[in-house]
């Protein structure tokens, strides 16, 4: 699970130009750093060595996430004044942006879970060779640069891209290109591509933790395969779905690059709205206030979900109860 | 199955619903190892059979083959005259208790126990009474609304048992059901399970590596080693009349003497360089044999003491350890060839020796058992 715990801080930083968003992404790094240290300290109660070993990480987290976030908070209140917040709440543009963002994040989450569940299930149930293959296939996409992947989708989904060319010239199904690029559809495709591994890994971990004997017990008591799945496997894998879903949702809320490159002008998601405030409208204070609100929203979602499945599960570290 | 479940009464007085199980030539190969190697066994209706063996003996694989989780490479499983080798797991109508209970953690105790009834299509309103009856049978009446997580290990085990018997399966499989319990609880559960299986007339196939459990609970024991059936018989037969060294070593402590048996006058004797082991029975000439002497049959006498009777086996040695075990004490004696002999004495009686003393061990020829042909 250590892989998962490291992933958020890495992949969720959409790029250097989106620094306010990066600030809000500090949450994932947050949870993994001190959380891991605490677990270790508990296991070796008398050893100061391990808590010492966590120190460089802690310094980095403070310097790279906590300090910038504090700066953002201060800026939101003082540049020029706390009226930044009222400006947001009275702006119908921002409200629309919030609704669009929530909708987008929700759709992406649902798609990730629907696509990711069968994949995670196959991974959990296959032999070592097949599992390794599926895992590498998943991680290959993960290890490819976000920018490269997003641009690739541009090429694929363009009016003159592979999909449209195939539909028109090879299959003869369409006469005019289907507009996919610069639509929410393209954003969903690109976002699912980026975020799918989080959902798959969370589901996979949960599915793997189910005692195979529990499924065998259901079987021996007369449950056909699909009933074993519906009555035992699926309910027992729900915490993984919640964990993966929350992670995807939270990451999707603050996404910038993918919507910017694949999305249309009609949907301005929160990440883009923040950029607009800073770069186009030259109102860094309003942008900072938006970033703070986004951060608070993310914390709220995490806090709410943590009541059900435990924060450690969502962040992919073993902070919760051990099975 | 539904009919058995609803018609059979609480005490199984309608006659034995237990199945007759015949295993014929079961073989299962994993890579180079024959995990189960040509095992044939018959379990009579209502019998409690224990598959006993060390880890890797194939006992668990055999149980999984019967349950249907593993397909045998060869052989047939016939239950009540019906070959179920090709029948899918969920249609075999078997009850099973798993080592780690395998309760459904997301369901209540009652829902756990009701699960087999639900799967067999028992109507919802009939389920509650059957569930409560099954829970009462394991002394957990009224626990239905709890979550399995709130229960202790022993209670979870009882729930698993109730779940396994609620639908009155003709065959109950148990995979090391008591392995995770502490000793006191384990002994209580042994008696409990035995009582239940008798009352219900269940045919039970139990897997364990615990010889005490096997001896206590079983009508029949099938001892497995290296995938092969070593011996199949009553606990008395396996303990008292082991047919092989493997059986003698596995069940209970034993002292084994290996050598050639020769006639000496009216007696036959297994002569060792450092002592004589009298062998009961009429010997037809010389032969190789292993003589098994149980530790409780041996008396310890001071070195140089006169033989208590003429017809007694004697073996010199030096006491190397004296282990107090409550109701008995275990004395280890190093024989002249360096092999360690085990003696069990009553702990109440004073020991005529202490560690380091030279002693003579004596036992009556009638108390030993000969495994012929083994060398």
From TrEMBL, chain B:
Keywords: ATP-binding, Nucleotide-binding, Transport
Keyword Transport listed: yes
Domain of life, source organism: Bacteria
Domain ABC transporter: 21-251
Entries under InterPro entries matching the protein: AAA+_ATPase, ABC_SmlMolc_Importer, ABC_transporter-like_ATP-bd, ABC_transporter-like_CS, Mo/tungstate-bd_C_term_dom, P-loop_NTPase, Transp-assoc_OB_typ2
Single annotated GO MF: ATP binding
Signal peptide: none
Gene3D superfamilies: P-loop containing nucleotide triphosphate hydrolases
Pfam family, one: TOBE_2
Protein name: ABC transporter ATP-binding protein
């Amino acid at each position: 699970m250590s892989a998962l715990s490291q992933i958020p801080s890495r992949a969720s930083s959409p790029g250097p130009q989106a620094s306010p968003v990066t600030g809000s992404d500090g949450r994932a790094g947050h949870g993994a750093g001190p959380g891991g240290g605490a677990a270790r300290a508990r296991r070796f109660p008398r050893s100061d060595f391990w808590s010492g070993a966590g120190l460089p990480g802690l310094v980095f987290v403070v310097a790279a996430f906590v300090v910038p976030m504090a700066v953002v908070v201060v800026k939101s209140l003082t540049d020029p004044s706390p009226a930044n917040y009222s400006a947001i709440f009275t702006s119908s543009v921002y409200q629309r942006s919030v609704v669009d963002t929530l909708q987008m994040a929700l759709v992406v989450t649902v798609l990730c879970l629907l696509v990711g569940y069968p994949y995670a299930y196959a991974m959990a149930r296959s032999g070592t060779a097949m599992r390794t293959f599926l895992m590498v296939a998943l991680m290959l996409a993960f290890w490819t640069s976000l920018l490269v992947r997003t641009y690739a989708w541009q090429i694929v989904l363009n009016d003159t891209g592979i999909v449209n060319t195939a539909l028109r010239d090879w299959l003869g199904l369409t006469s005019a290109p289907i507009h996919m690029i610069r639509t929410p559809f393209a954003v969903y495709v690109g976002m699912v591509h980026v975020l799918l591994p989080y959902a798959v890994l969370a589901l996979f971990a949960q599915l793997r933790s189910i005692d195979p004997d529990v499924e065998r017990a259901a079987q021996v008591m007369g449950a056909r395969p699909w009933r074993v799945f519906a009555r035992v496997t699926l309910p027992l894998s729900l915490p993984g779905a919640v964990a993966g879903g929350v992670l995807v949702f939270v990451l999707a809320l603050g996404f910038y690059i993918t919507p910017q490159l694949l999305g249309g002008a009609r949907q301005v998601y929160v990440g883009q709205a923040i950029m607009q405030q800073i770069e186009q409208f030259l109102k860094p204070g309003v942008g900072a206030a938006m970033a703070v609100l986004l951060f608070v929203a993310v914390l709220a979602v995490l806090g709410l979900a943590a009541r059900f499945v435990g924060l450690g599960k969502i962040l992919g570290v073993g902070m919760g109860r051990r099975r | 199955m539904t009919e058995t479940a609803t018609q059979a009464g609480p005490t199984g007085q309608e006659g034995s619903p237990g199945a007759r199980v015949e295993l014929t030539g079961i073989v299962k190969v994993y890579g180079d190892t024959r995990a189960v190697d040509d095992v044939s066994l018959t379990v009579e209706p209502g019998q409690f059979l224990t598959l006993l063996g060390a880890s890797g003996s194939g006992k668990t694989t055999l149980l999984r083959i019967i349950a249907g989780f593993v397909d045998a490479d060869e052989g047939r499983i016939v239950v009540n005259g019906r070959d179920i080798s090709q029948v899918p797991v969920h249609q075999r109508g078997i009850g099973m208790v798993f080592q780690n209970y395998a309760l459904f953690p997301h369901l209540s105790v009652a829902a756990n126990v009701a699960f087999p009834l639900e799967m067999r299509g028992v109507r919802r309103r009939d389920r509650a009474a059957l569930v409560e009856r099954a829970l009462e049978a394991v002394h957990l009446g009224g626990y239905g609304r709890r979550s399995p997580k709130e229960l202790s290990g022993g209670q979870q085990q009882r729930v698993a048992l109730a779940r396994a018997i609620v639908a009155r399966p003709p065959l109950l499989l148990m995979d090391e059901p008591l392995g995770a319990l502490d000793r006191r609880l384990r002994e209580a559960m042994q008696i409990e399970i035995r009582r239940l299986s008798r009352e219900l007339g269940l045919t039970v196939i139990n897997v364990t590596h615990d010889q005490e459990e096997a001896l206590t609970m079983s009508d029949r024991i099938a001892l497995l080693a290296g995938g092969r059936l070593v011996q199949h018989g009553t606990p008395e037969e396996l303990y008292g009349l082991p047919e092989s060294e493997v059986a003698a070593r596995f069940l209970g402590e034993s002292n084994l003497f290996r050598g050639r048996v020769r006639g000496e006058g009216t007696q036959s004797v297994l002569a060792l360089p450092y002592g004589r082991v009298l062998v009961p029975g009429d010997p037809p000439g010389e032969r190789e044999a292993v003589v098994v002497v149980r530790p409780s049959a041996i008396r310890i006498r001071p070195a140089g003491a006169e033989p208590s009777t003429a017809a007694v086996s004697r073996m010199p040695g030096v006491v190397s350890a004296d282990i107090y075990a409550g109701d008995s004490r275990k004395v280890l004696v190093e024989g002249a060839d360096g092999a360690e002999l085990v003696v069990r004495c009553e702990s109440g009686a004073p020991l005529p020796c202490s560690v380091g003393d030279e002693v003579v061990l004596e036992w009556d020829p009638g108390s030993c058992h000969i495994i012929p042909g083994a060398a």
